[in-house]
């Protein structure tokens, strides 16, 4: 019973500090946020803060890890799955998670957040879903990397816009949009040829 109380208290402390960081990051970059104001904002003393985190960057990284951990767990259920409908369900589940945690994720995915985390999230999702935005299997690795970066960066921008728009579109519609846009570059080579023929 004691361990349960401690665990509940620990989770409350972590959530209070995460909420505090999110609130402060809406006002200024993380580099300008001090531990003192983080603690005062959360109504938690500095000793308690250092029992859980080394600094504000460690706190942010733990928030990012929670998000990535959820995505990994969702993806693990799809290992070996080739059905497109199941892949779409995964993407929809990810967007539902984003809606449920939008206050935190809005900051994680914003210009104030870590771009490496943002790209890592989508790269992991695309690779697990088997989305390879390459126009041709014969292109060199450097070109393949450019196509992948293009798809991932575009998805990050789209997610940022969706969050700024207060998640007006439902999770299912966003999942379909992201999937189609990410896959689109696979067919741009064919589309270009078709368009030129149509002329």
Total of DSSP H or I helical runs spanning 4+ residues: 10
Radius of gyration: 20 Å
Number of strands: 0
Average pLDDT, all residues: 79
Classification by helices and strands: mainly alpha
Order of helices and strands: HHHHHHHHHH
Number of structurally distinct domains: 2
Parts with pLDDT < 50 across at least 5 consecutive residues: 185-199
> Helical content, roughly?
over 70%
Largest sheet: none
Gap from first CA to last CA: 74 Å
Shape annotation: elongated
- How much of the polypeptide forms β-strand, as a percent range? under 5%
What does this structure look like?
The protein starts with a helix and ends with a helix. Helices cover 74% and strands 0% of the residues. Mean pLDDT is 79; it is low at 185-199. The protein is mostly helical. The chain has 2 domains: 2-53, Orthogonal Bundle (Arc Repressor Mutant, subunit A), CATH 1.10.10.60; 67-198, no CATH class.
Brief summary of the model shown:
This protein is mainly alpha-helical. The chain is built from ten helices and no strands.
Question: Helices, strands, pairings?
Answer:
Layout: H1 2-25, H2 35-42, H3 46-52, H4 56-76, H5 84-100, H6 102-108, H7 115-129, H8 141-164, H9 171-184, H10 188-198
Key descriptive features of the protein:
single chain, 199 residues, mainly alpha, Arc Repressor Mutant, subunit A, 2 domains, 10 helices, 74% helix, disordered C terminus
